[in-house]
Amino acid sequence: MSVALAARESAVVPRPIIRERGQREVFCGLTGIIWLHRKVQDAFFLVVGSRTCAHLLQSAAGVMVFAEPRFATAIIEERDLAGLADANEELDRVVTRLLARRPEIKLLFLVGSCPSEVIKLDLSRAAARLNASQHGVKVLNYSGSGIETTFTQGEDACLAALVPECAVTDASQLVIVGALPDIVEDQFRRLFADMGIVRVDSLPPRRAKDLPAIGPNTKFLLAQPFLGDTARALEERGAIHLPAMFPFGAEGTTAWLHAAAKAFGIDEMHFRSVIAPGRERAKRALARYAERLAGKSIFFMPDSQLEIPLARFLHGELGMELIEVGTPYLHRSHLADDLAALPADVQISEGQDVDKQLDRVRAARPDLTVCGLGLANPLEREGLSTKWSIELVFSPVHGFEQAGDLAELFARPLNRADILRRERLAA
Amino acid sequence: MQLTVWTYEGPPHVGAMRVATAMKGLHYVLHAPQGDTYADLLFTMIERRGERPPVTYTTFQARDLGKDTAELFQTAARDAYERFQPQAMIVGASCTAELIQDDPAGLAQTMGLPCPVIALDLPSYSHKENWGAAETFYQIVRQLADKSRVAAPREGRRMRANLLGPTALGFRHRDDVIEVTHLLATLGVDVHVVAPLGATPAAIAGLGEADFNVLMYPETGDQAARWLEKTFAQKTVRSVPIGVGATRDFIAEVCAITGDAVPVDINEGRMPWWSHSVDSTYLTGKRVFIFGDATHAIAAARVARDELGFEVVGLGCYNREFARDIREAAKLYGVAPLISDDYLAVEEAIAASACELVLGTQMERHIAKRLRIPCAVISAPVHVQDFPARHSPQMGFEGANVIFDTWVHPLVMGLEEHLLTMFRDDFEFSDAAGASHLGHGASAPLPSAREGLGEGASIESPQSEGSLALAPSPSPSLEGREGSLLAEPEGWHPLAERELMKIPFFVRGKARKNTERYAAEKGIAAITVDTLYEAKAHYAR
């Protein structure tokens, strides 16, 4: 574990970073609704936006998720803009209708969009007003607009909006911050329980009423690297962030769990014995994939902010060669441990000019390019294997038990390319 | 403000993208924030295109708003020209850029780009995708078509026609173009330009050299066709050749223009005989609900009634611009037209119609799946499944063959229908078995259909558990709705309810509906087994 410490110190060494400002090919923060509305089961997300916002939500899920979902869009129309209708009255009308139809909803997020930001529709005042008029439903607001947030930052904005609602506590406790699939969250909770960390809560909770209390004796682990604003809000409430590598792969998960163990004074031998079975399983699973992936080159287009920790995992635990690691935003302090574990000369890029970046992809011809859905088929057509980045956000990839699944996500496109190539050769 | 869960159409700039992506040598510079780049995936994922759409987004951010977003636009336009060297460019704004009023048109004009630049004004807060596509295509045609290039004297040459309307992301446009081209060839007509699909700006310049136009898709091509009619005195063939009868009309219309006699030896494909053969008798009077874009819905209604012998019990469209056409068609079939882009309203109408087959869009496919009604897709909005690897047009005689197969396939077949009625209690014929040719899940029983929604699509209504026994009762999401048309019926005697369950699932909905309607009309409060059979006799066809 002293490795991580030493690594953090070496993180101050300057690295080559490309900073670009051009066309970005990324989702906006509204996209987070696709997974957040499944995580918090009595929450509803009402986007106040345009037809484009509604169309994005419908398209971004990859498939249309056709059960009536817990999200919707209040589409701003010409009469709202022309001042013919009072936007606030319209919003109240829409919310009242919505809540009448969905009585099980306990938490309503009014989600700001590009158009609502530009016309300066004050959703925080709307939320306050609706809180007074809608009994039994908590109404909050955040912005998922594409002029302010990129893809996963929408979750950050959502969770940061929840923090002021958390009760105050002096109890010593651990909070896991970031939406994880329930099965992964339960695995982590079992490990913490076995270590002897008794009080463990999650943000976001599965039910609105289970919002964790926060106070000076609260320590929190970030499960995702894109939660800068949420972490700051928690720290303002006195909670203490436990910096660590993010829990991807055997090493990342070990370091992440260990940060909590240390903070809660868990005996080192006991910690090791608790994590040993899971860690061994993860290592066994990864060994198989290391044979497949070692020495293969990978290029990350900026997308989810998971790029740095995933690059750390793929390089450190599977031996992949990193050509360029692009990220929409580089949160240096939260990523310090993962950055330190990357080779000193790795090319990192922040921001994007998509055409120039694609020129670099074509020049380098990586074995695998991690990119968004708009770019994947065009690159495949050019003979470059790709991994859709959105799957890394939608599927369970954290922790020991998912380490093999995470590696599989990267190995599968390569295996498939090999199979199809064999087929072509045989034909 | 309009509360929207799912939309049939995207914003108008997505319509413009469908035109730009269909064409070659055209580039679209779109003033838009970064999130709007999601639209690329519609083309690369749903349509499996191997190239990125030819669209450059300015992706302005909040911090640019106080400064110079106009300069950002000009830089993006200049870079896009240099990189892609298009023959022409279209420029415009998405919904957010429309609000900041940078005037992309004016900005592009002052730049002196070395290619024609066509400015688009697509109001996002009042118009939608199809309108955006039509307007974009019209502007491109109006500004690029060379008025000095007109059709040469005929002098014994073959006639030439333009095919207007096919776009990227269109429902079977790719295959319809092939089919209509073949059809015209058999009539001695060559295709001059297909546009927008596959056309370059250079080809658009020569549209006037054709003798006439074929308007394949009025939703996207009507405006341009009218302008060409006016400018070049080109006639427009407006019969949309979907179905055998409409294809005959199309041939007659083309021949009226060419002055040739309608060929007598034309091969009309298998559909008329397939429909006539005795095996198809069971199709007679099947109740069918039709919803889509107006052109496809109207065409489908004609095929359904006149060529397959179905009964049209619902007809509607989501594109209000063509509401008049739908209203007129609905009169022919004696149904109330449904003009709505609210899928909840469409779902309620489908449930209330007690139909046996839904012909709709991808939205109706999901509605039908939930209501356990067979369904075939006839119109956009599209899904990856609507881009099959095989040739599968809707237009022409081959299109009619495809339609026969795709509409009849989801239905329970004739003899099987009888067997299901006769051997209700045979465990292999239970509702759980579904239709034998459809494999698992196609018309699975309600409880497992609900489980089957698994991947991220769980049913959410708290009441959903309580009503499982009532098989074709409305979907759980409907039950949770305020003012639902489908409140749980009262007054079913348990014996009558049990008798109802003996009726095969695919007609049970109709039986329930008819019985309740009959009971309501007769003022019967308690529905008994007798009421059930009295209603059956009353509504016997």
Describe this entry's structure for a reader:
The complex is a heterodimer of chains A (427) and B (541). Chain A has 427 residues and is an alpha/beta fold. Chain A has 18 helices and 14 strands. In chain A, the strands form three sheets. Chain A has a six-stranded parallel β-sheet with strand order 1-12-11-10-13-14, with helices on both faces. A four-stranded parallel β-sheet of chain A has the order 3-2-4-5, sandwiched between helices. In chain A, strands 7-6-8-9 form a four-stranded parallel β-sheet, with helices on both faces. In chain A, helix 14 links the parallel strand 11 and strand 12. Chain A starts with a helix and ends with a helix. The N terminus of chain A is likely disordered. Chain B is α/β, with parallel strands linked by helices and 541 residues long. Chain B is 44% helix and 12% strand. Chain B contains 23 helices and 14 strands. In chain B, the strands form three sheets. Chain B has a five-stranded parallel β-sheet with strand order 12-11-10-13-14, sandwiched between helices. Chain B has a four-stranded parallel β-sheet with strand order 3-2-4-5, sandwiched between helices. Chain B has a four-stranded parallel β-sheet with strand order 7-6-8-9, with helices on both faces. In chain B, strand 6, helix 8 and strand 7 form a beta-alpha-beta unit. Chain B is globular and about 80 Å long. The two termini of chain B are 45 Å apart. The interface between A and B is large, with 72 and 70 residues.
